[in-house]
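Researcher: Please predict.
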Amino acid sequence: MMKVLQISSMEKVRGNEFPVCDEICKKTVLKGERFSYQIVLQSDEWLNGTIEVVSDFGDAVRVFYVLNAVMDNPVTDPSAEADDDYITKEPGLMPDILQPIAERNNIWMTGMHTKSLWVEVNVPKEMPAGVYPVTIRYQDIETGELIVEKTVEFTVLNHEILPQSLIYTRWFYVDCIADYHRVEVYSEEHWALIEAYIRQAVDVGINMILVPVHTPPLDTAIGTTRTCVQLVDVEKEGKRYTFEFSKLRRYIEICKRCGIQYFEIAHMFSQWGAKCAPNIMVTENGKKSYLFGWDVAADSAEYVSFLKQYIATISIVLEEQGISENTYFHISDEPTAESLETYQRAYNIIKPLIGKSKTLDALSDFTFYEKGLVECPVTCVEHMKTFLPHKIENQWTYYCCGPQHTYTNSFLAMPLQRVRIIGVLLYKYDVKGFLHWGLNFYNGQVSRYPVNPYQTTSSDGRFPSGDPFILYPSEDGAYGCMRGKVMYEAIEDMNLCRTLEQCIGREAVCKLIDEEAGMDVTFENYPRNREYLLNLRDKMIALLEQNI
């Protein structure tokens, strides 16, 4: 017997479970919108089949095979013990990896084992309003005989969803690509992989990329270095420095080609307080070595002299590339109150040199913004209540290895609605950007050694599983994952809110968000069920339908 069900993208079907939930048969969508759902299959027979898509949407329908990831470390913070909004806190397998069906198109059904497909419908903007069925067929691989088929009927409205306004970044580590794939840094193989990874990042809504003008001083053990991926070649002659930017220009060109709109320049000082210079490779008298690094104080005369020449010339390249106004400079990641004076000295060096660009840093102490040291504060979700009353124009938010209780996050052990709720929160509180530290961090703690992301999703036990990355390496690029795709859906929720706002106004949309929840939706308080997000979306679509 074969069981088949079409279900929400927010379900995680584990092991031999077969979900008990409402089936998706019909959906109303907007032009330009992406809608995803899953098809779950279970059979008591041994079957081997292929997948066929039948739809007038053509290539706009993509199908992925859902693979399990190793969840070796679900939580690390004891505070999470009191939070029951987890699927489990026990290690095991968790569905996450999305492999394009075209790579295998060979699905074995083996005696009551459950298999899941992820179906993604990217409604073309030029699609005429109307009704369009999407049928997925599972056929015998040898005979072509139809085993089972399922259909969702999509009604496309004569409304186009607004494009993404959120600036969204997850830190991109080109060193981890070189290390995992075992290719020479900035070889042609490396450049091809960099582009493939960036394309995968853009596919889940990322529109800002970290630019390693020098190797980013992030998650690096004190006194050590990561694989050098410095884009800018530096040569020293006396007190004067010369710079070569061909790799930087190539990197920017790749980013633009892939759809990146915003750029963040690697931090100019060490992490957690701006005490030291980052590791920067310099050629002097024909010898290349780290002239700057952990042994050089952030405010040393030599480093300050270097920075003034370095940033001034980088700024010229940014202007030449037409991206200076969309570029953000980092000073130091997560400065603490104790490092306020050090950070202020660093800011005073950087700010006069960056022209039309802005400063951007993750911080949770309002004093840094109050003193005018950060133009775009990136505040942890659990500290947003301190910043929001001040109505900051360029407010951003982030989460990382925490919080592991109460708040939204994207750990493997969490239900997917806890990932997706961020979109409603970003809209309601008018947050301009979202940052996360791990797009593809494939290292152990503070990068002491590389890890295999198919063996550990926690940096070998350092972080909650899923926190270090949302891209899994493939043979010639990277695979996306459910968490990344659901984050894209969160951004689509935000876009849908903005689209509806054009019809009924922002106040009415915010009221609808709260009314559907039956509460004042905040970063601390929000509905803990997927039905809220599904029903809210349907109500917004219905209101748009009334306003055609």
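Model: DSSP finds eleven helices and 24 strands in the chain.
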